[in-house]
Amino acid sequence: MAGLADHLRRRIEAQGPLSVAEYMADALGHPRFGYYMTRDPLGAAGDFITAPEISQMFGELIGLWCVVQWRSMGAPDPFRLVELGPGRGTLMADILGAANGADPEFTAALRLHLVETSPTLRAAQEEALASARPQPAWHDRLEDVAEGPLIVIANEFFDALPVRQFERSHEGWRERLVDLEGDGFCFVLSPPLEAAPPLPPGLGRWRDGDVAEVSPSGLEIAAAIGGRLAASSGAALIIDYGHAESAAGDTLQAVKDHAYHGVLESPGEADLTAHVDFAALARAAAGAGAVVFGPMGQGAFLEALGIGARATALTRKAVPDQAREIAAARARLTGSMGELFKVMAISTPGLPPPPGFD
Ligand code: SAH
Predict the structure, then answer these.
(1) pTM of the full predicted structure?
(2) Which strands sit side by side in the sheet containing 271-273, from one edge to the other?
(3) For ligand 1, is residue 118 a contact (CB within 6 Å)?
């Protein structure tokens, strides 16, 4: 056993079973062996594909969203354009291209900030954005981005943040933990918890065997975004797969080579995600003083922003093979991904509803 599995084994031997969040944080983000730290997982040759990697239309429409949103904020100059977890930088490159074509004043006013922990993906972003002016500044955390008017974009970022899992039993709540079993790992349950775990409120009655998930870092980031938007003019666009209402269920999953994989099977070698609880993020952002719109399905959102017209315009310049690709990408973004993926906006109180939510 090598690398991350070895590290996890030694950690469990020293301190006992790990919470699911501790396991997930190491599996994805361990500085030396973490999944995102050591590779570029995106695209056909990687483990999974995301909307901006499917089609440029996705980023272009979000670029136009940013321009309209910035105008409705009163066109502040300067303002910060912040992306959380920018992957290969494809989404931001498409955003900047479309936004600059639509409104060069937007480009002149923006300061670009990328929040990214992976050195491999930072290098990919640097390459994708080599011609971007101004050049991006990179940060490990949103807190490191200076105050002021801002627009925040996060696509498939929140699903990568660690979750804790709690299981209801007739003796009360227990936390699901990761322990050693032979050469590998297994799930075990903690003794019944003395204090109630930080569950999403308003879920009604729990039944024995129910699993509740909470993402402490996700809630913290949503509250930080809400606090910033309450203090300065701006908006955030959060796109991810998950549920609109908090619900019981174990949604932790691993994906490797575009197929499901055992969650505990190859730590550091497979992507690990959990569904995003949009209602919980909305409560955290609203609790910090911001206003929340949606979530709505990604399909309806992209249709509202005009993906139909964009696809038609691109098709006019396309050869038949490209035309088929454009149609397939539109169908995928709005069809198979269109319901599971959701879009939520967070905004400064008093601003008009963000585009797509009006
Ligand atoms: N938004 C991109 C990539 C999604 S993958 C796209 O749509 O294609 C998740 C991204 O979040 C990766 O760039 C990963 O390195 C980054 N990431 C994961 N956890 C993070 C954390 N805690 N802080 C900052 N970035 C993180």
Answers:
(1) 0.96
(2) 259-261, 253-256, 271-273
(3) yes
